[in-house]
Write a structure and sequence with these properties.
The protein has about 500 residues and is α+β, with helices and mostly antiparallel strands. It has 3 domains: about 1-70; about 80-190, Beta Barrel (OB fold (Dihydrolipoamide Acetyltransferase, E2P)); about 200-495, no CATH class. It has helices at about 1-20, 25-40, 45-70, 165-170, 195-210, 215-225, 235-240, 255-265, 275-290, 295-315, 320-335, 340, 345-365, 375-400, 405-415, 415-430, 435-460, 475-495, and strands at about 85-95, 100, 105-115, 120, 125-130, 140-150, 155, 160-165, 175-180, 180-185, 400, 465. A hairpin with a 5-residue loop joins strand 7 (about 155) and strand 8 (about 160-165). The model has no long low-confidence stretch (mean pLDDT about 85).
């Protein structure tokens, strides 16, 4: 019954994301829900039970659509009247600056606007502005700027794919952007204390890694530990994308899941440790990674997803996994329902978690020829499971099908935990002494060089990557239905053997 309500709520949010919600739409949903609810009293047995499930699911749909109606998707921006005008504004940088190769993107909470001689202090909305890399700005800085607000446009790729950039920003509460921005610093220290501390820790840790490791190894280590990938450069990022390994330099559910599983698998071989120690270290490592990344909302969403998956596997209570997982998704969607359709990181986190919870246990019994030494069988099954659940979506988004993804991932992922361990030591020791940090940096460099070499060799292999044409979301859903059917037969075959 509860699962029906949960999945109905999720379906309602999805429906409200694509279908315009109006009063008439609400009335139709209410009428259909009432029809199913009343009609169940006129039938008996199994039919009544089915209609009860449908009624509860319809109630969930009604709640989901209602939540979408009151979301930012159907809310007008206070800044609408200033679009296209050149205005002066003051605001505070409320997120970590996103430093790119040619510019820096700042998320600014606008607090006042001067336009046509009128001073407006009623505004409290975020905008995204592009500024030169220098001078540098930081979280919590109060700035004065001259901006021309424009509505963000979706990004069209050469192969016909469209990235919903407008929806992506709307998830983050941003309606408008400004490319040509004149900006100057007014004062500092206006951010939240905890968030400011997290960003300072991240910056100090990043500087420590940069001082001890050369490029591009330093950037790769920063990506592994903190999820920052911009400094790797387009060429190396392209190699990671072509080999299906870009997840290791993005702090998403996919990355966190693989890292946590690998760490726990590695510690299981230390016989003198208690049985619960690897699990505890895995949980703590996830929390530390998330904090070091700056504590962004997207990182915490990914961490929550993976923590739920790990606790579910630890409890070994299969009949409760789906319920807990569904509730986790609802708790994350309730404050911001736009995540479901417009946030790729959320979608990847959900898919990766599904792979860990449900698909990995189905695959592992078929990998008897893979040795259990170093817990390799578990690493391979987890890697294959997440590939199965995530790969169709990645192909839909990028059009890249990597034929070398599985072997390259297996060769790399086994070295990730030790790499991160040495990287963490380098970063922490480097805060005290640069020269002492060179010792663990030597071992970290060897592992990083190995990973970059494997990725490079995989990327240059002929026919290692296939570029597929764009296809519709309906076809993507069809692919996942086929995967579901295949997994169903896999379970059926296992239960009869």
């Amino acid at each position: 019954m509860i699962l029906s309500l949960v999945f109905g709520f999720i379906a309602g949010i999805a429906l409200g994301s694509f279908v315009p919600v109006s009063l008439g739409f609400f009335l139709v949903l209410i009428f259909l829900t009432a029809v199913f609810f009343v009609y169940r009293y006129f039938v008996e047995g199994t039919n009544r039970l089915i209609l009860t499930f449908i009624s509860i699911a319809m109630l969930g749909v009604l709640l989901g659509v209602g939540r979408m109606y009151f979301s930012d998707l159907y809310t007008n921006s206070y800044l609408d009247k200033y679009v296209g005008q050149k205005i002066s504004a003051e605001g505070i940088i409320v997120d970590e600056p996103d430093v790119r190769e040619k510019n820096t993107k700042l998320t600014i909470l606008v607090q006042s606007i001067m336009s046509k001689g009128t001073f407006d202090t009623s505004v409290r909305e975020k905008i995204l502005v592009s500024v030169p890399i220098y001078p540098e700005f930081y979280y919590g800085d109060k700035v004065k700027m001259t901006v021309t607000l424009v509505e963000p446009k979706n990004i069209d790729s050469d192969d016909g794919r469209v990235f919903d950039y407008k929806g992506y920003l709307r998830v983050r509460g941003i309606w408008y952007t400004s490319k040509f921005t004149t900006i100057q610093l007014e004062s500092t220290g206006h951010g939240a204390v905890i968030k400011n501390i997290l960003f300072k820790i991240k910056q100090a840790f990043t500087n420590s890694l940069d001082n001890a490791l050369p490029q591009p190894e330093s950037s790769l280590m920063t990506g592994l530990l903190l999820g920052t990938k911009q400094s790797l450069g387009k060429e190396i990022l392209g190699e990671f994308q072509r080999t299906g390994t870009s997840h290791i330099v993005v702090l998403s559910g996919y990355n966190i899941a693989i890292v946590a599983t690998s760490i726990m698998s590695l510690l299981k071989f230390l016989k003198f440790l208690s049985k619960g120690f690897p699990f505890g270290v895995g949980v703590i490592s996830i929390i530390l990674f998330t904090i070091l990344s700056g504590g962004e909302a997207s990182a915490w969403r990914a961490a929550i997803m993976v923590l739920v998956a790990l606790f579910a596997k630890k409890m070994n209570r299969d009949y409760k996994i789906g319920r807990v997982f569904g509730f986790t998704i609802v708790l994350m969607l309730a404050p911001n329902p736009l995540l479901l359709v417009f946030d790729p990181s959320f979608q990847l986190s959900v898919l990766a978690t599904i792979g860990i919870i449900f698909v990995s246990p189905m695959i592992e019994p078929y990998l008897t020829k893979v040795t259990e030494k170093f817990n390799l069988r578990n690493v391979v099954s987890t890697t294959m499971a997440t590939q199965i659940t995530v790969l169709p979506y990645l192909i839909y988004s990028t059009g890249i099908l990597s034929l070398v993804s599985l072997p390259v991932n297996i060769l790399i992922l086994g070295t990730v935990p030790m790499t991160m361990f040495f990287g963490f030591i380098v970063g922490m020791v480097g805060l005290i002494s640069l020269y002492l940090s060179f010792i663990p940096a030597f071992f970290a460099y060897i592992l990083l060089w190995y990973q970059l070499s494997v990725v490079h060799l995989g990327a240059i292999l002929p026919f290692g990557t296939v570029t597929l044409p764009a296809f519709s979301p309906v076809f993507l859903i069809f692919i996942y239905i086929l995967i579901f059917i295949w997994l169903y037969f896999l379970i059926s075959r296992g239960s009869t053997s």
